[in-house]
Every structure is written in C-alpha cells, then in structure tokens.
Amino acid sequence: MTEDFKAGARDSIGILLGLVPFALVFGIAADGAGLSTIQTVAMSAGIFAGTAQLVTVELIAANAGLAIVIVTGIVVNLRMLMYSASIAPHFTEYGQRTRAVLAYFLTDHVYAMSIAEYAEEARSRNKRLYYLGLGVSIWLVWVAATVVGYVLGAGIPESLNLMFAIPLVFLAILVPAIEDAPQVVAALASAVVAIAAAYAVAEFGLPRGLDLLIAAAVGIVAGVTAEEVMAR
Amino acid sequence: MSEYAVLEIWAVILVIAVATYLIRLSFIHLFGRINQVPPRVTLVLKFVPAAVLAALVAPQLVTPSPDVAEMVVDERLAAGIVAAAVAWWRGDILVTILVGMVALWALQFGPTLVF
User: Fold this and answer.
1) CA A164 to CA B83: how far, in whole Å?
2) Number of helices (H), then strands (E), in chain B
3) Domain extent listing, chain A
C-alpha cells in the first residue's frame, strides 16, 4: 500500500459518513421490495450507484413493468457520461486493462474528489492509486452497509415510517445539486408533472414508472428551454 | 412485496449493471478518438439529476389529488420542506435524513402526546 492509495482511503471517510445512512436505507428498501440477500448484494456490487439502486427497488416494489425499471435505472446513471469524459484525460497514460478497472469505480463522489485532487498539482499524486484508494474504500463500506440495512430492515416497526427516509435521501442529493435557475425550472416542472402523472397512475391505471419517465422528460425539456431563453 | 419473478429481478440487476459500467467506461475507453461530449448532450445531461430526483420526491411528499388545498395539508410535505431547507443549508445526507425523520415523527406523534 502506498501513500497515495492511503490518502485516497483517508479522504473517503468524510464521504462515507453521508453514504452509510444511504446504504442502510437502500438495504431496508431492498428487503421491503422482496429481494433476496444475494440480489441486494449483487445490486450494490454490480450497479454501485445509490440513486439508481434505490430507484430500481422502488419501482420493483411498485410492480412497474420490467422495461420501465430497466430504462429508468439506466437513465439515472447517464450523468456518468460526463464524469467519464471529464476524467478520461487523466487516465490516458494507463493501458486498456487498467482503464477498464478504473472505470468500474467511477461514482459521483470518486469523480468529484479525484478531479479536485488532480487539480492540486503541487501534491503530484499517483492518479490511479489515489483514485483506487477512494473507490475501493467506498465500494467495501457501501456493500457492507447495504447488508446491515437489509438485515435490520425486518426488525423495524412499520409505524416509524422509515421508508420516508427514501425521499429524504433524494432531497439531500437534489437540493445541493441545483446550481442555477434553469435547474430550478427543470426540478419544479418535473415535480408538478410527477404529481399529476402519479394521480393518473392511481386513477386511470397508467403503468407505474411511466409517470417518472414522463415527468423527468418534461423537466429536462423545461430546463433546456429555460437555459436557451436565458442565454439570449 | 413485489410480484416480480426471481429471474426478472436478476435480469434487471444484470442489464442495469452492464449498462452502467459501459456508461462509466465510455469516454475513458474512447479517449483519443472522441475527447468531447457534444455540447447538446452535455446540456441535456445537466438536467437529468434535477428532473429525475424531483420526479421521485414530489409524489412522496403529497398524495396526488385534483384538490390542491387537500394536497398541501400533509405532514410529509411539511417534513420534506424542513429537510430541503436543511439540505440547502448543510448539504449533508445524514443530517437531512435525521432532521426530516424527526420532523415527520413530531408532526405525526406530537399531537397525540400533547392532547
């Protein structure tokens, strides 16, 4: 273990304080959706993206169609295209196989922390080791905390409404992610359409999950439009 | 509890996991051939998190109904607004969850303790 790997592991601690409760909530939600332990672990290890995992189990619990669950889970992760493009110049010195391994650990936090660290040229870190220090620590704790949440899930009384933690997690990610007015427009448009569409699902039997995709699409169009109008 | 078959859940996990990995690998692999995401795509991607997350949250804070007044009187909405304020102020997932849950419990169980 070198210094750079350890520095990455050390820098992951602050992130993990926020991620552990998220992982616990996911574990509880996976139990509630009827997933097995091994399926829950496979999701954390394979998908390794909290929001997508939570969305997926939510839609499974709501019996949304197979195609909708898959499409929604993938759409939520499309933002990672930007991370991939942004971090790629830092990895060009490595071979294909190393890059294939590094890509697996590209989460929101690993991306943000690594890019910030690479900008500190004075520290001249070994990029790959620092990145892996972050990624491997986060991966291990994420998978472990998921299992703990899954095991605890069954023992928690229904009356505590613990599932309310799920929208709270999404709010905790959403609010700090909003940086400008067009993003506010996107969020508000999406929220309004989501409520109307959820009503349509309950009242007219629109497939569950489709409401989410319709609302997100309207929100994105509204955001892009707002951005273009304001640029003029 | 869902009505999903075991194999369907495995299919969901496998397909999303592979697609997510390919998204992560995309530019890291392609670099040298294409080194920029087209600006149009970047613009759309910029709004994906805000739009998807808002769509997930909104229907869980209110019970969708054509009657707006009925929707606004909801403990979950009040607790959600408090949590959103905390998220904006602190930007911390743990604190946001704790404050939001305590606010919900206070609104749900508080009145029965007082009266």
Assistant:
1) 11
2) 5, 0
3) 2-154, 178-231
CB under 8 A, 24+ apart: contacts of B83-92 = B83/A168, B83/A171, B83/A172, B84/A171, B84/A175, B87/A171, B87/A172, B87/A174, B87/A175, B87/A176, B88/A175, B88/A176, B91/A175, B91/A176, B92/A18, B92/A172
ipTM of the complex: 0.85
- pLDDT at residue B34 is higher than 80: no
Q: Which residues of A touch B3 (CB under 8 A)?
A: 63
Rounded CA-CA distance B96/A211 in Å is 26
CB A177 within 8 A of CB B50: yes
* Closest A-chain CA to B40: A224
Size of interface A-B (CB pairs under 8 A): 287
Q: What is the pLDDT of residues A173-231, one digit of tens each?
A: 889 888 899 999 999 999 999 999 988 888 887 777 788 889 989 999 999 999 999 98
Of A207 and B20, more confident:
B20
Contacts with A73 from chain B: Cβ below 8 Å: 12, 16, 19-20
Mean pLDDT estimate for chain A: 89
Residues of B in contact with A28 (CB under 8 A): none
Distance, in Å, from the CA atom of A40 to the CA atom of A109, rounded to the nearest integer, reads 21
